[in-house]
């Protein structure tokens, strides 16, 4: 039975060996490069690195990002549903439509709530 795990063990050894060799080569070649202030400075698309390294973002930015992820996941659930809809409808009746309408209804209520609270408004 252990011979079934030999390919997995071999893959782990090869992946670990590759990672180790890559890191070793990086350390050996990285120390031989010349270093100066210009090479060690951060490159920001031609802009001089002036100011804080991590700028503060508004909370509104994170709220909109979370709402985008939430409503983007809706598409992840709608796509497989739409693929099997016709076959499932023929076999089990309208239960599939009711369950998806409930799901979309809950998301619509969440969207209306976010809109009413002003989470989608950039002016505030």
Question: How would you explain this protein's 3D organization?
Answer:
With 124 residues, the protein is mainly alpha-helical. It folds into two domains: 2-40; 59-117. The protein has helices at 6-32, 37-40, 59-92, 95-117. α3 (59-92) packs antiparallel against α4.
Short account of what is shown:
The protein is mainly α and 124 residues long. It has helices at residues 6-32, 37-40, 59-92, 95-117. The radius of gyration is 27 Å and the shape is flat.
Structural class: mainly alpha
- Total of domains: 2
Query: Count of DSSP E strands?
Result: 0
Low-confidence stretches: none
The outline comes out as: flat
Distance between the termini: 64 Å
Q: Given the structure, what is the number of helices?
A: 4
Mean pLDDT: 83
How would a crystallographer describe the biggest sheet?
none
The SSE order reads HHHH
Assess the beta-strand content as a share of residues: under 5%
User: Nearest-angstrom radius of gyration?
Assistant: 27 Å
**Fraction of residues in helix:** over 70%
Topology:
Blueprint: H1 6-32, H2 37-40, H3 59-92, H4 95-117
Helix pairs in contact: 3-4
Protein traits:
flat; 0% strand; mainly alpha
